[in-house]
């Protein structure tokens, strides 16, 4: 939960370092291209989206035709492979695999209630603001499944600049996790005003995403179907610009993007940071958050939210969030902040926090790592020789896996898979795609097989 861009160093970073040697940690414990195609494709950007009022209604697709019945029996538009922009030799790539994700438990879900309601067993509080007050009721939302919970709920995507995105795609199972998957949402910088089943919300209420996010600029990405906030909504949400369905169940997200420095003169006209020293808040972020958190009326910042079960603080032991690729701003201090290192960490009621390695600029200068490394060990200050695996049931490990920031294009991928209870995160150079990734990169076919998904689950990079 990024309360302010760059403030995460003081709120959500490592307080207890497990197995750290340098400055890292393996445990984060602190405070679209064209119009739709296919049958009945004339419904614009993908029809009504998935869902209904439930927070986890699955999408409805036809595994034989590869179309989405709940999107007007359409599929993603035909598209040509992108043209990446790269300099120098291809890099090694990397994978960071989180296993055994999901557990029985609960988080405090916001419900519509009046003061004194006995259902408010997590939080019952009248919150006073300068302009008035609001009653907050949170009830235990009990979870009995261990199947990727809570990340099988509806999730929104969050993108923070500086970022330059060329393609942005979400795959989901058409009918069941064991069958074929298809593109559920598609966006391409070559036709930025024609997304397929994407709803965007950015600075100054901008709903058109052109792919270029300046320093400290934030865009939220959702499905196009409105979520019915207001009276009777479940989970309760008062209403905001983010009242849209997220993606429930299993999903594979593919982003082709670069992370230019914030003080790159070409990025200056797009900045949302008024500070004269753009480097201090240079912290791109690709995250995935519970839709119910983002729909709280304050884009995830409302004091009545599901992020924490523990009152006060920022433990993140509630409804979950994944900081898939997060740079910690150097304004957070030299112990934590480093614009050249990217962290990946998971937060939820299951473990509190998992992963989230950081390494500040005082100890982790980029000169320590070879130019062709993507996945690095910040504890030993070396390049990782193999993909890293973090087990939610056995978190201790000697390595501190993190990413070396690339200024040119990379494929940033993350898979949340119910079948294997795995969150797989990967970075790949477009010029060095392993065979398992070539099943869907760079062509991004409309459908992929379950075997293709399993191949990605089992991929370990570098090899």
Automatic annotation (TrEMBL):
Region (Disordered): 26-95
Ranges of compositional bias, category Polar residues: 85-95
Range of residues in the leader sequence: 1-22
Protein name, per record: Cell wall protein YJL171C/Tos1 N-terminal domain-containing protein
Compositional bias per record (Gly residues), positions renumbered to this chain: 41-54
Keyword Nucleotidyltransferase attached: no
UniProt domain Cell wall protein YJL171C/Tos1 N-terminal: residue ranges: 136-173
Compositionally biased intervals (Low complexity): 31-40, 55-66
PROSITE patterns listed in its UniProt record: PROKAR_LIPOPROTEIN
Keywords: Signal
